[in-house]
Amino acid sequence: MAEYDTETVVHEEMTLRNDAKMTARDVSVFYGQKQAVRSVSIDVDSHYVTAFIGPSGCGKSTFLRCFNRMNDTIDIARVEGDIDLDGRDIYDPKMDVVQLRARVGMVFQKPNPFPKSIYENIAYGPRIHGLAESKTDMDRIVETSLQRAGLWNEVKDRLDESGTALSGGQQQRLCIARAIAVDPEVILMDEPCSALDPIATAKVEELIDELQGRYAIVIVTHNMQQAARVSQRTAFFHLGHLVEYGPTDEIFTNPKADRTRDYITGRFG
Amino acid sequence: MTLGGFALIIVALAVLAYLTTRARAAAFGGPAGTMRSHSRPVYHGAWAAILAFVPAILVIVFWAVLGDNIVAQQTLARIPEAIRPGSGIEQQAFLNELRAVYSGALPAAFNENVAAAVPVYGELVGFWRLVIGGLALLLALIGGGYAWLNSQSEFRARTHVESFATIVLALASLVAILTTFGIVLSLLYESLEFFSRVSPFEFIFGTQWSPQTAIREDQVGSTGAFGAVPLFWGTVFIGAIIAMIVAIPLGLMSAIYLTQYAGASARRILKPLLEILAGVPTVVYGYFAALTVAPAVREFAISIGIDSASSESALAAGAVMGIMIIPFVSSMADDALSAVPGSMRDGSLAMGATPSETIKKVLVPAALPGIVGGILLAVSRAIGETMIVVMAAGQAANLTANPFESVTTVTAQIVQLLTGDQEFDSAKTLSAFALGLVLFIVTLLLNIYALAVVKRYREAYD
Amino acid sequence: MTDPSSPSDTGETLPERTPTEWHSNAMQRRIRRRYARERRFRFFGLAALVLAAGFLAFLLFTIVSDGWRGFQRAEVAVEVTYVEDELTAESGSLARADYRTLLRRDLREQFGTERVASEGAWLRLRERMEENPGLLGQTERVWVVASPEVDLMAKGDVDFTLPAERRVVDDEMVEDYRDLRESDRVRLAFNSGFLSRADSTSSELAGVWGALIGSILTILVTLAISFPIGVMTAVYLEEYAPKNRITDIIEVSINNLAAVPSIIFGLLGLAVFLNFFGMPRSAPLVGGLTLALMTLPVIVIAARVALQSVPPSIKDAALGVGASRLQVISHHVLPVALPGILTGTIIGVSRALGETAPLLLIGMRAFVSDIPEGVTQPATVLPVQIFLWSDEVGRGFIEKTSAAIMVLLAVLLSMNALAIYLRNKFERRW
């Protein structure tokens, strides 16, 4: 592999501003001795879908998990640098991680519905956070969340069935509905379609498209076509570095960094 | 020569067969460095040793196990009828003394008749020993010689040795089946004997337990009642209620703390501690329950105004048993919780749930079948536990729900009924086997059901 | 949150929700409550563990605080003259000399009572003579085992301020003891007899050696039977057994036997070994056989796990160079699996070593005051000895029971340490 520049190429439109929804500055992540993310700075804006792409092991998922501090659950992980949500440092000891995660929701690679009914899966978040005053409130939240996730018509007659009885694609949309139910501001999606078949993938992509604008969405994917289809901004990671960050169409048609070009033309990855 | 001496000669013959046959096989024709025969000389030798040793030693083992009874019966048949002992215990005592005198354990016989029988017995023992030993030697010689003659270069000695090994392995695995059958048959046999004297209906539904059978007709308080309900209740009360009230919360919370909260280093210290708790012999728990816990429980009961408190209380035995079961419940719950996929936990945490909310609302419900299966296994272990109840629960068959009173259990009664001098075929001793049968069936069903639950649960997440 | 001017291309028909006020007071209070619950829950978890550990510590503390006195005994100094005529007066020979009468006389002369020394105190004199026959006719000061009452007083277990009728020792004994103290003729010494003698009806003479030997004999029988059969069963099931009904029955039998209460094995031993085969009661042979059947499933299960963990690549490699099935197993599979098998065996055997209930049923609770010399002689084992002593009323037996428990725990602990050592030393990762 040729020697590459480790400087990040940031496109003009993407110049870092400090009033974005979430900002990351010089973020590094270590797993024990190993450094998985190397000093990455990026902005995440409301109204847009931001895609993190790159070959596997490039640190994109690890970086994503910093945004709602899910790396806290891994004993050996250590995060350096600043990540702010609405200008407040989320790694500040005074920042409440429970609230943070309610505001920054997450959808995982493999659908992980709880072994409870569909209704209870959606109601779980609002219930622990006390977002519903009454049973009717809760019914409304469940219904709107499922509607937004485009699942309502498929499951409205069997809300009492177990969430694990749904198909893979439906399970993943259930998980998205579950994330929506607490009314988050940001939704992080960690390769949400990698365990799904093409038809289910198309449905989830359609859903992401519909959600865009309502939430700030960050999606990690190793599928470049998917990034091109659903995102407006794309960040390309390689070996823990952020290589290039810019508008999606520009990254795919006119990349500025050599590594990005090599990757999207299929020379490595 | 004793049987052991014959056995030694047979071993020597087997070694000889091995060496000579191996030497013979090593001399098979063919150029060096090529495969000259089907099997290597070692296998020819081994096969010869097997043929020389196995049949002969089987004869000797057979005689060692059964020979003494045969000789004893022949002795009894040969001595004059006048000095022949009666049947049953008398005969047993006669034979015991006879053997003791003959082996030199007793310097002289107390019973003149025994003294008269000793020479007869000795003569028979010597005669049979020669016959059996000679037969064994003959078999060894025939076996070894046959193998020696048979060891041609095309003889498939290795195949024979391997088949023999397979047969031995298969026979070994039959021991487990034999044990199971032995348990079932011996329990059934003695229980049927018992139920021919006491109706099964009375045994299972009766509420009076006082197993002394009257020696004299007019004896007081020796009704010989065999209603086992108080024992069943005592067993359930101590093993499935009191012990579980202690063990389930402590065991479950320990497992939760160990798997969800404790850091790696804390786990390294705490887990072995629980394992030590599991490794303490039950007799130690029993001693502790009887000597330390029971008096404390009694004093506590009296201090809160319960005067009927017994020094052998259900509470003391049950609580200590519960502590004994903690590591068991904890390790089962640990397994069940670990089997819940990590993604489930992440999913809940990512919603902003606290760890305890995640545990209570997601992990424990998801692991519930596994935990319940583990608890059932723990119950089965608790009701089969013996020493703690023997030492701390007492022998009074009370039908009471007062934890400060003394109750007794199935296992405690089995020990009580079968220790001390008992004639074996009284209803009292036989009832122990009926109790054993009930215990066996109940623990077996509990285990089968619990293991099925646990297995189904594991498969759900695999 | 939702900006109406956002570039959303959905036909918006869904009702809007008011954004959650995360910083409202109600929400903050709710979060504080949730965190309080979190801390409480975590505390309960830790408390459960601490309670379990605390119980273990308390148990060990009680045992040790009682038990260490079991390793001590009080001794009384007596001036003994080995007068030949008196020793041989009864039997006529020194080999069967009567030390008892001799010691009694000396005790009476020096203390005015025999009650300061144990009934078995004369054993010490015989030992002295056996060590040094030249003592005949000589006089020497010998420390002999004290009586239980003196033992209690020397260990400080008697409250002298209590009135005589509420004490275990009468005033006369207290006086004798005071005299002993003043003349410095009583001391506490290491109870060597505890580790070298068998059971006795007098607590000051009782020892665990007989029970320990009984345990060792029993466990040797158990091991000799259950280890080979267990390993062979495991090898058969893992490497040979065809998938058929009989194999299924074997598997089910083993799994069920592992869960059968131990006392059921006692019933089996009683019905089959004692009553059917007529084997001797109370003998390590029968105890060992019974425990072997109990231990068998444990060993089989452990050995199967160990055999399963041998990577198939090793077997394939050996088969590839033309090894037969027996050769593959004996040359390659068993050596790799052996540490795992041994660890499982030690765990199974140490459980058998602590087992009591089944042995009670086959008569190993008999009072045995001799040290057993073979597997067919009457014997008792450590756990049963503990059970028997725990039933004795004397204060002296309480500390003996605890001391015996200490011995048993020490044996078990060192066996488990050996298992852990083996596991760590030979554990291989593939």
From TrEMBL, chain A:
Any single Gene Ontology cellular-component annotation: membrane
BP-aspect Gene Ontology terms: phosphate ion transmembrane transport
ABC transporter domain boundaries: 22-264
Keyword set, alphabetical order: ATP-binding, Nucleotide-binding, Phosphate transport, Transport
Name of the protein described by the UniProt record: Phosphate ABC transporter ATP-binding protein
A Pfam family matched in the record: ABC_tran
InterPro entries: AAA+_ATPase (IPR003593), ABC_transporter-like_ATP-bd (IPR003439), ABC_transporter-like_CS (IPR017871), P-loop_NTPase (IPR027417), PstB-like (IPR005670)
GO molecular function, one term: phosphate transmembrane transporter activity
CDD domains attached to this UniProt entry: ABC_PstB_phosphate_transporter
UniProtKB/TrEMBL annotation, chain B:
Subcellular location: Cell inner membrane; Cell membrane
Any one annotated GO CC term: plasma membrane
A molecular function GO annotation: phosphate transmembrane transporter activity
Record-level GO BP terms: phosphate ion transport
UniProt keyword NADP, yes or no: no
Keywords: Cell inner membrane, Cell membrane, Membrane, Phosphate transport, Transmembrane, Transmembrane helix, Transport
Superkingdom assignment: Bacteria
NCBIfam families from the UniProt entry: phosphate_pstC (TIGR02138)
Family matches, as PANTHER family: PHOSPHATE TRANSPORT SYSTEM PERMEASE, PHOSPHATE TRANSPORT SYSTEM PERMEASE PROTEIN
Function of the molecule: Part of the binding-protein-dependent transport system for phosphate; probably responsible for the translocation of the substrate across the membrane.
Family affiliation: Belongs to the binding-protein-dependent transport system permease family. CysTW subfamily.
UniProt protein name: Phosphate transport system permease protein
Organism listed in the record: Pacificimonas flava
Taxonomic lineage of the native organism: Bacteria, Pseudomonadati, Pseudomonadota, Alphaproteobacteria, Sphingomonadales
Automatic annotation (TrEMBL), chain C:
Keywords for the protein's UniProt record, in alphabetical order: Cell membrane, Membrane, Transmembrane, Transmembrane helix, Transport
Entries under Pfam families matching the protein: BPD_transp_1 (PF00528), DUF3333 (PF11812)
Region (Disordered): 1-25
Record keyword Transport present: yes
A molecular function GO annotation: phosphate transmembrane transporter activity
Transmembrane segments: 41-64, 208-237, 257-279, 285-307, 328-349, 403-422
Chain ranges of the ABC transmembrane type-1 domain: 212-419
SUPFAM superfamilies: MetI-like
Protein name per Swiss-Prot or TrEMBL: Phosphate transport system permease protein PstA
Organism listed in the record: Pacificimonas flava
